Amino acid sequence: MRTDAEHEMATPPLAAADRATQGPAVPSRRRLFVYRHTIAVRILHWVNFLTLTIMLMSGLQIFNARPDLYWGATSHFSHPVLSMVAMQDGQGHTWGVTTVGSHSFVTTGLFGWSKGGDGTYTERGFPRWATLPSDTWLAMGRLWHLFFAWILVINGALYVLWGLASGHLRRDLWLSRTDWRRLGHTFVEHLRLRFPKGEEARRYNGIQKLAYLFVVFIVGPLIVLTGLTMSPTMDAGFPWLLWLFDGRQSARTIHFICAMTLLSFFVVHILMVVVSGLWNNIRSMITGRYAIEATPTAMESNHE
Amino acid sequence: MSNIISVRRRRLILGVGASAGSLLLGGCDRLSNLPLTQSALSSAQWLTRAAQRTLVSRDALAPQFTRADIAPVFRANGTTDPNNPEYQALAKNGFRDWRLRVDGLVERSRQFSLDDIRSMPAQTQITRHDCVEGWSCIGQWTGPLLRDILAQVVPKPQARYVMFFCADPMDNGSDYYYESIDMRTAAHPQTLLAYALNGETLPVTYGAPLRLRLGRQLGYKMAKYVMHIQLVSSYKPFGQGNGGYWEDQGYTWYAGI
Lengths: 304, 257
Fold this sequence. Notes:
- The complex is a heterodimer of chains A (about 300) and B (about 260).
- With about 300 residues, chain A is α+β, with helices and mostly antiparallel strands.
- Chain A has helices at about 5-10, 15-20, 40-65, 140-165, 170-175, 175-180, 185-190, 205-230, 230-235, 240-245, 250-275, 280-285, 295-300, and strands at about 30-35, 70, 80-90, 95-100, 105, 110-115, 120-125, 290-295.
- Chain A has 13 helices and 8 strands.
- In chain A, helix 3 packs antiparallel against helix 4 and helix 11 (about 250-275) crosses helix 12.
- Chain B has helices at about 1-30, 35-40, 45-55, 85-90, 115-120, 145-155, 185, 245-250; strands at about 100-105, 110-115, 125-130, 135-145, 160-170, 175-180, 190-195, 195, 200, 210-215, 225-230.
């Protein structure tokens, strides 16, 4: 026996919509396929995924070379904003200690003191599994990071240019008046893990749009600019970068915060992908086709 | 039925995802060890260098700071006391017998004593020192511009790089620290050979008697304990051919970022 979903999967996108109208009699099981993601978005999305993964992990490798963050132009070694160190207590036992501002936490096994390649504990900021390469290897981390930085910027620029030219940004990401008005409602619905269905699911909702706009137009540019502010040559050519971010070490701190913001975005993104229909979401980002419940209005607009 | 299938499918997707993830991670570690990957990734430095040359003018100055910004304790990195008997003998004598040889692709090579160098017009700059590890310290450096020293030996037109050979033995003495910069960097108005830090004679910890200071690159380019400067057309014949001690360990030759 085949399910609805499987049946429809085997048919080409356009025919699928028609088939849905003749599908099984149970209305709630009727599904309609809409072409959600264009080939450009799909390619840019997966390139971005690969690139951001490499950037994050190689970035943590670079961070580990000096697992402290500071504020200002220089490193005030006695006053880090954040630090991950190994500390020994009176009994000779070593602990991983993470300090944020004036608060310290024991983070043995995770930050400051975790297993090295030979299985014995060693002092390192982020653990092996989070860094690229796994072993402490700053030179290689920098090679990955500063190569893929170019891919990230090119991919991001292509996305924005294509998004502007094709109308994707205006049509799919810009918030409509209704989106703004319903923002509170959408937020509450999200907290209840209830997601738009039927016709509503054709478009991104307000929270989704805000999240994407925030990442694309705020965090993205910020992480690139703070990255460039760490370059001594760029500081000579564009001293306003130092003014903007209050110094090179502040820029490094903001760069780290942006990376953690992107990581949080990624975690929530994955969570949302899973709870709002894992297979449907993944398929739509691979083939472009996204299934929605076939309510009468949804079908009508599809047959326009 | 459809539930079973969706459970299977979910398992399949998660399984594929997890294996792809671990393949990617393991793969990246394995890739990191391949010379081909290293040289491919490393090639991005030339794009970065070209982009920065386009965006930043030849003589754009690194930001200058005030005396109030000077780090109370300037962090010392790399070698802090060269394990080299010849160097130790020179240091013991206040570097009176130390000579800086400048030769290679020049019209007239010559040697400079510390007094020769101290009697030249000097620049004092309060600039930021950025380590590849990520930290920064501000210090005040004094010394003649490298371009003034080079003007005395008159570089030949074929000269493309300035090599710096240092007194600090690396890897238990099997080789010595060395570095190289291009002529453009050598001519920059903030590239100097510093003999003083924060108004004091440069201490051994920071590279006495003379170290290189660059305004726009990372710390590992700024050779300490400089003994010999040589103008060359290529840095390939030296060390392992990558232009410097840390470059031979995989760090990029261009350290403007």
